[in-house]
């Protein structure tokens, strides 16, 4: 019995040593793998630190950036620019404008990035502004379908804007990837081209982070993008009229022009026992503009169509906008000025409107 017990104890002891040896080896292997992983992670961390220097605080390099093709680049809005008050004001003005234009389509935009990237809103907006129907599917869920729609919409937009000197700061990929800067560039261009009845904040600039891949290394740079300049400079992209030329080349004749315009409008307004002495202020509420159009076209304008004694800014804008409609009904081009500019006593805008009437009706009795 004692011999058997001794043999059993010896075998058990040997087995325990074998197990300990196996666990030791296993532990060593796991330790080596863990250490290897730590080294790999450290290497990757160092690589990222080298590849992405000087990034603004709060900016993240996305995992897909490391997979970018050689010479490719990606643009991101610097987080600090999102809090820029003028930029936020610009976004609000654009959103309100889109919602006003697409009210009949029952489309409500709340976020430009989330609501414009698939092309649906941009399609409806372009169709509304241009009066053209685009040959695209109404609803597209797939990424391919969305990009095809965007391609059609942007081709039409670019075809319209490029001859007027607009730099194309957007693309199918940038819009679809929800690049807010590209979306805003596009909307500002459309608003200015179609002379939207809105006032865009002037001198709005933002910072963007540009990530490029060169020789396998990610390079970053902080760049300033100007989204709007002055209203006059932006309107200058359009075809200039004779009034622009007059002001540019003969500003000393401005008083002569004003005198001629006063004589012209009084020739007609005197028929209603009305008289103008100050062009800057007396056309600002739109009443004289409406009455003048009725006299020039020889019809009576029903009083219920406009506010004879406007009190609010909105009522004055209504009057001026209504006068603009009467001008277009009379065969004139849509005025370059905006109703809001006339109401806000913008002399150049008021003179441009009156000069346009003068050149078309100067020989009428």
The strand line-up of the biggest sheet is: 1-2-3
How confident is the prediction overall: mean pLDDT? 79
Termini distance? 140 Å
- The helix/strand class is mainly alpha
Morphology call: elongated
Report the uncertain regions: 4-9, 42-54
Q: How many helices?
A: 16
Radius of gyration, rounded?
Answer: 34 Å
Strand content: 5-15%
Order of helices and strands: HEHHHHHHHEEHHHHHHHH
Labels describing this entry:
365 residues; mainly alpha; 3-stranded antiparallel β-sheet; 16 helices
Overview of this protein structure:
The chain is mainly alpha-helical. It has 16 helices and three strands. The protein has helices at residues 2-51, 79-82, 85-101, 112-116, 120-130, 143-161, 172-176, 180-193, 231-235, 242-249, 254-269, 279-282, 287-297, 313-329, 339-343, 347-361; strands spanning 73-77, 205-214, 217-226. Strands 1-2-3 form a three-stranded antiparallel sheet. Helix 5 packs parallel to helix 6 (143-161), helix 11 crosses helix 16 and helix 13 (287-297) packs parallel to helix 14 (313-329). It is elongated.
Layout of strands and helices, then pairs:
Blueprint: H1 2-51, E1 73-77, H2 79-82, H3 85-101, H4 112-116, H5 120-130, H6 143-161, H7 172-176, H8 180-193, E2 205-214, E3 217-226, H9 231-235, H10 242-249, H11 254-269, H12 279-282, H13 287-297, H14 313-329, H15 339-343, H16 347-361
Give a nutshell description of this structure.
This protein has helices spanning 2-51, 79-82, 85-101, 112-116, 120-130, 143-161, 172-176, 180-193, 231-235, 242-249, 254-269, 279-282, 287-297, 313-329, 339-343, 347-361, and strands at residues 73-77, 205-214, 217-226. The chain has 365 residues and is mainly alpha-helical. The longest helix is centred in the first third of the chain and has 50 residues, at 2-51.
């Amino acid at each position: 019995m004692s011999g058997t017990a001794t043999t059993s104890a010896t075998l058990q002891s040997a087995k325990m040593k074998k197990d300990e040896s196996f666990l030791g080896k296993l532990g060593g292997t796991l330790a080596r793998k863990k250490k290897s992983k730590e080294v790999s992670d450290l290497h990757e961390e160092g690589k990222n630190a080298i590849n992405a220097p000087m990034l603004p605080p709060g900016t993240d390099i996305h995992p897909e950036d490391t997979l970018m093709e050689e010479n490719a680049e990606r643009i991101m809005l610097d987080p600090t620019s999102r809090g820029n008050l003028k930029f936020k004001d610009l976004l609000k003005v654009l959103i309100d404008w889109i919602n006003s234009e697409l009210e009949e389509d029952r489309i409500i935009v709340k976020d430009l990035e989330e609501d414009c990237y698939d092309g649906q809103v941009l399609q409806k907006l372009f169709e509304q502004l241009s009066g053209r129907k685009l040959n695209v599917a109404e609803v597209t869920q797939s990424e391919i379908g969305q990009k095809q729609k965007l391609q059609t919409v942007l081709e039409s937009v670019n075809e319209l804007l490029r001859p007027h000197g607009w730099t194309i700061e957007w693309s199918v990929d940038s819009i679809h990837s929800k690049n807010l800067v590209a979306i805003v560039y596009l909307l500002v261009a459309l608003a200015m081209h179609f002379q939207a009845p809105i006032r865009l904040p002037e001198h709005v600039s933002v910072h963007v982070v540009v990530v490029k891949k060169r020789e396998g290394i990610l390079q970053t740079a902080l760049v300033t993008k100007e989204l709007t300049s002055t209203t006059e400079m932006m309107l200058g992209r359009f075809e200039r009229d004779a009034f622009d030329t007059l002001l540019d080349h003969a500003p000393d004749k401005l008083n002569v022009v004003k005198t001629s315009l006063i004589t012209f409008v009084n020739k007609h307004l005197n028929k209603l026992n009305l008289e103008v002495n100050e062009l800057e202020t007396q056309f600002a509420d739109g009443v004289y503009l409406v009455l003048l159009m009725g006299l020039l076209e020889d019809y009576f304008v029903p009083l219920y169509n406009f506010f004879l004694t406007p009190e609010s800014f909105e009522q004055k804008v209504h009057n001026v906008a209504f006068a603009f409609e009467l001008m277009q009904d009379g065969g004139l081009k849509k005025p370059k000025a905006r109703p809001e500019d006339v109401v806000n006593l913008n002399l150049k805008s008021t003179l441009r409107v009156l000069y346009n009437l003068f050149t078309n009706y100067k020989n009428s009795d």
